[in-house]
Amino acid sequence: MAEPAARPEGTSGGIVIKDDWPGYELDLFSYPAHYCGDLDCVFIPHGVIMDRTERLARNIMDDLGDHDIVVLCVLKGGYRFCVDLVDRIKSLSRNSDRSIPMRVHFIRLKSYLNDQSTEDLHILGAEDLSFLAGKAIVGTGKTMETLLKYVEAFRPKLIKVAGLLVKRVPHNAACLPDYVGFEIPDRFVVGYALDYNEYFRDLTHICVISKSGKMKYKI
Ligand code: HPA
Ligand code: MG
């Protein structure tokens, strides 16, 4: 089985969004009126997310050869990315001479309160697993490390992780996904299923939450 292309050390392999990227003005796009005032900018528009996901799907197809795929969707933040990624893999598979069987499982992880990572990671509801993909965001990499240990116990033939976003955090993630959509600055983003205390999952773009948004939905 082919490995994804080697990455230069210290890089994630995703599209790099620089620290000084200001995002797009909110009013250039549409977004739910109930979030007016709660966001600073559109950081990654939905269409760009979809185009990047399509390319990741192709890379995954190219690497996977004839393996069956068991997709493990990491809820709740990964659900949009996972659905769209599986959709793209399915349509590429339909249009090729290689139809890849896919099963989808779900696992639920929770480690954030407000915008802070908490020590205790809860893994809720998992079944028998043999392959892995589909997390929306990797910050410290702690969650991903725990998850990998957990999945390895099922002795899958191969484990690959797809992450839509990797954050450039001060002590960079020890553990990076094999497939990365975007590498982003260390800012708290919401939308496309990513939440702040369960809000903003219903936003299609990935946006930066504003100070007043954080205050409004703080627990
Ligand atoms: N947004 C939402 N959830 C998260 C983030 C983020 O920036 N980082 C880790 N979990
Ligand atoms: Mg969350």
Automatic annotation (TrEMBL):
<dbReference type="InterPro" id="IPR050408">
    <property type="entry name" value="HGPRT"/>
</dbReference>
<dbReference type="GO" id="GO:0000287">
    <property type="term" value="F:magnesium ion binding"/>
</dbReference>
<keyword id="KW-0547">Nucleotide-binding</keyword>
<dbReference type="GO" id="GO:0000166">
    <property type="term" value="F:nucleotide binding"/>
</dbReference>
<dbReference type="GO" id="GO:0032263">
    <property type="term" value="P:GMP salvage"/>
</dbReference>
<keyword id="KW-0479">Metal-binding</keyword>
<dbReference type="GO" id="GO:0004422">
    <property type="term" value="F:hypoxanthine phosphoribosyltransferase activity"/>
</dbReference>
<dbReference type="Pfam" id="PF00156">
    <property type="entry name" value="Pribosyltran"/>
</dbReference>
<dbReference type="GO" id="GO:0032264">
    <property type="term" value="P:IMP salvage"/>
</dbReference>
<comment type="similarity">
    <text>Belongs to the purine/pyrimidine phosphoribosyltransferase family.</text>
</comment>
<dbReference type="GO" id="GO:0005829">
    <property type="term" value="C:cytosol"/>
</dbReference>
<keyword id="KW-0460">Magnesium</keyword>
<dbReference type="InterPro" id="IPR000836">
    <property type="entry name" value="PRTase_dom"/>
</dbReference>
<dbReference type="InterPro" id="IPR029057">
    <property type="entry name" value="PRTase-like"/>
</dbReference>
<dbReference type="GO" id="GO:0046100">
    <property type="term" value="P:hypoxanthine metabolic process"/>
</dbReference>
<dbReference type="GO" id="GO:0006178">
    <property type="term" value="P:guanine salvage"/>
</dbReference>
<protein>
    <recommendedName>
        <fullName>Phosphoribosyltransferase domain-containing protein 1</fullName>
    </recommendedName>
</protein>
<feature type="domain" description="Phosphoribosyltransferase">
    <location>
        <begin position="50"/>
        <end position="196"/>
    </location>
</feature>
